[in-house]
Design goal:
- By secondary structure, the protein is of the alpha/beta class.
- It has helices at about 20-30, 45-50, 90-95, 110-130, 140-150, 180-185, 205-210, 220-225, 230, 235-240, 275-290, 315-325, 340-350, 365-370, 390-395, 405-410, 430-445, 445-455, 465-480; strands spanning about 1-5, 35-40, 55-65, 70-80, 85-90, 100, 105, 135, 165, 175, 195-200, 200-205, 215, 245-250, 300-305, 330-335, 355-360, 375-380, 400, 420-425.
- Strands 3-4-5-2-1-8-9-13-14 form a nine-stranded mixed beta sheet.
- The radius of gyration is 23 Å and the shape is globular.
- The two termini are about 15 Å apart.
- The structure holds adenosine-5'-diphosphate (ADP).
Length: about 475
Amino acid sequence: MHIVFAASECAPWAKTGGLADVISALPKTLVKMGHKVQVYIPYYRQVAKAFSGPPIVLASVTIPFPSYNRFARVLDGGVIDGVQMYFVDLPELFDRESFYATPSGDYPDNAERFGAFCRAVLEAAKVIGVPDVFHVHDWQTAMAAVMLRSIYYFDPVFRKVPAVLTIHNAGYQGWFPPRTIETLLLPWDMFTMDKLEQYDKVNFLKGGVVYSDAITTVSQTYAQEIQTQEFGNGLEDTIRHRSGDLFGILNGADYSEWDPATDSNIAAHYTANDLSGKQECRRDLLHAFRLEDIGEQTAVIGVVSRFATQKGIDFIVDILDRLLQEDVVLVMLGNGEEYYERLLTEMAERYPTKMRVQVKFDNVMAHKIEAGADIFLMPSRYEPGGLNQIYSLKYGTIPVVRATGGLQDSIDEEADGEGNGFKFWGYDSTALLDAIHRALDTFRHKKVWEAMMKRAMNEDFSWDKPAQEYVRVYERVIQNRS
Ligand code: ADP
């Protein structure tokens, strides 16, 4: 099967979160299974820095706008782990400081940026290779599915080519003013409630939900949640309408990147059979965060997260004063909303011997926290799939999570430390604190804790099974359209 991925992120070059990890891992698993996969991403400044002048595959792809054309180049990013990478080069749209936004807000031309990208992918695919299925991701590339079924409707080569949309986060939908319809040369009759319009805005993700042949999301629980008002963010009715074509597939972990037995970013290697290296990773982590004289009995609690309300950062803020009275230290790595960046930094200054915060995006440090912490905190308000809890399991760093989305599907709390983590329900910081207390109680029983670590490390969240589920979805939509 030939699959074209169109996405706005791909690790390691363009990453703000889990989407990037999925776009790097799922294609190579599909290739391992014998499929042909091509991945298109924008040629961001950050990508250009990593590749010195990749060869040009297409020198000029015409992307029409109402009173002008743009011209994209398609560059050959090479074959990486069997996956063919292509970069869409539109310097005026993608050669910028950031991917989507600056501290003062989203780029005002995001609709044009990602609309042009979608169109460039479709045009390029016509020349380079028409796939059996397009796989698009989140609002940024959802419009490729919309375009296929509208302005490309009469294109004979695309007639039978289905599109699958994966929703990695329904909290971000790409809302744009009505004139976006004209900017992207779409017919005005698509600006209705049953198609692209929502609350007088053009909603890219909604378009994807309406026009894709199947919709997947990154856990089974989240597939249920987004059909409710609480999590659907206004799209619940549209998604419910498509529930027969909606599939929840839990994300996997790329163990070639995230495995303490081989991870090149950490101080020592370790496995479930020989945990000794974890102590060294712990020392290395504490040193990196300048926390001295921390004994083995002190639990090291780690956080790696976007600092956003979604991630339950406010729950953590709420309980800090109480939590830090326990025999714990807290290390946090993240960036995002300035409010939380500042607040957490200030809190850390108040507790210099117990809490440290690094405000940045730092992949190596993320690995060090996974390896060096005892407990990983992830109290998300909602969590479509979540990868860090899955990585934590592999590193024997026991997760404490809120029971939502992918956290609910991957973390199991049982009496007497029989599960692989701790979880709480409710939107309630006291429930979080209680869950941490349960974790700390277990942590003090070294034998039970070690058994829990080993159980977590031996679990298999590799991509093999999820990739098979994606193939079943591809097969289904291909068959439905043939
Ligand atoms: P989301 O995609 O909602 O941000 P996920 O848990 O699915 O959350 O994925 C987050 C990914 O981004 C993980 O690979 C995590 O390690 C990484 N990450 C998040 N914040 C940082 C950071 N500040 N520095 C390095 N990596 C980060």
